[in-house]
Amino acid sequence: VTDLSMDDEGVTLKSDRGDFRAQFVVDATGPFSPFAKKLQIRHTPTKLTTQSRGIFTHMVGVGSWDAMVPPKEHGMPYRMDQTTLHHIFNGGWMWVIPFNNHSQATNQLCSVGVMFDCTKYPPMDTPPEEEFDAFLARHPSIGAQFKNARSTRKWVSSPRIQYSSAQLSMGRYFALPHAAMFIDPLFSTGLNLTAHAVNLLGDILIQSFASGSLQSSRLAVLERQVLHKTEIFDRLVATSFKSFRKFDLWNAWYRVWEIGTYYNTLGAMKCILKYRETGDVTHLRRRFDQQYATPLAFSVKGYPELFESMVEAVEKVDRGEWDEARGIGALYTALERFDAMPSFITRRDPNDRTIGTFTLERLIRMFIWGKTRGPEHVRHYYDFTVGSFAAMAAQSLGKYASRFVGVSTQPLWDMFFTRTPNRPKTDPARPAAASVRKLSLIEGGSAGAMMPATNGLPMTAPVANAMA
Ligand SMILES: Cc1cc2nc3c(=O)[nH]c(=O)nc-3n(C[C@H](O)[C@H](O)[C@H](O)COP(=O)(O)OP(=O)(O)OC[C@H]3O[C@@H](n4cnc5c(N)ncnc54)[C@H](O)[C@@H]3O)c2cc1C
Fold this sequence. Notes:
Elements: E1 3-6, E2 11-15, E3 18-22, E4 25-27, H1 34-38, E5 52-60, H2 65-68, H3 71-74, E6 85-89, E7 92-98, E8 110-117, H4 128-138, H5 140-143, E9 150-151, E10 156-158, E11 169-170, E12 173-175, H6 177-180, H7 189-211, H8 216-243, H9 247-253, H10 255-278, H11 282-286, H12 303-318, H13 324-337, H14 360-372, H15 386-403, H16 410-416, H17 461-467
Parallel strand pairs: 4-12
Antiparallel strand pairs: 1-2, 2-3, 5-8, 5-9, 5-10, 6-7, 7-8, 11-12
Helix pairs in contact: 7-8, 8-12, 9-13, 12-13, 15-16
């Protein structure tokens, strides 16, 4: 798609397959969006504070971390080659994501990338593979994992990777987050933003087309939510880069993310379980209201203060106002004051390096804590019944069992133990039917007539699916 123009009646898209006429356009073209540029929604320069650049590729022959570092030594409860393995160093971090880490894998690739803090490692002219070799030479313990590795595609080198936008919504146009902003792969905030936007946008557009008038006020709410999340995620990532200077500082700091993501996930789970209990779709929509759609745990009493005080402590260390020990002490003091985490996952002990895995036993403990001992102000997060919780567990077990007919112990591993020998496969895509309705930009307007999907051109399958 090469161009877009909007008028009072709709949108015209120009493409190498001819022109398309649409009532509304969702821009899913990612970082190189020609429309974000044309509509001038992007900040120039970006307003994000994170300053990172990256080199990345796919490799084969990457060694298993667990074969090199025994569990007793790394001290984590799960195998490190069954997760996304992160290495951190003063000035950046690295991901190692093996796709061949289970017995049924058909993909031998491993995704490998290093993100550098631009202030400590400014962009260089050297080719990325040479920069990677130099990086491994500086960190021989990581280098050992790549002794026999080779890339299967060209290395990509990205200059400063951040971009941001002032708005996402403009009349008949809405930019998905990746077309409007990107921070850094750390914490997977990209898919968090994208999934949030797709879910809510889907609901808004379905309702808009059903009524015939665009719900622009709800689009504005979604835009504000994405912009707010972006602002907080940016501070989360920027502060993480500052904490990388010392492992103990990072180990204390990143717990603010664990607590945030605990509540974010719990909020979604509660809304889904409540919907299953009642069949009332408003519970699904609550996922996107003020209480549950804030970034991390920003709607939980005490969390915004926790976040701010932890950012401040790391920044003081970064500016040289505090030494590292003082900064680390301040982080644990702040965590100590926060009482809204279950007693068995408080995140206050420096030796307890991970929030752990949410096996059935832990989920049950979490549920009981929330219902009985947790502070009053977070009780609503646990407002679902034992019955719907048990049904969810049984349903998951059933799904797993049907997927892993040949590996009968798999569901038991996944639900009850921390170490699991396998991973599920994805569902095949479902077919969809296409229909297009006329959409008025005036909220509350009446439903219009059916519109042809294109200017007489046959709809291609992807377009038909996208429109459906
Ligand atoms: C190096 C890197 C690592 C990342 N790691 C993570 C991670 O670990 N976790 C995470 O959550 N997120 C990560 N992200 C972010 C994640 O990739 C994005 O959030 C996600 O891909 C967004 O999906 P999308 O479909 O909106 O956009 P994209 O995946 O960018 O897809 C855009 C699509 O539009 C197509 N397109 C572009 N221009 C046009 C045009 N003019 N006409 C037609 N088609 C067009 C492109 O070919 C592409 O297929 C990472 C991003 C990068 C760059």
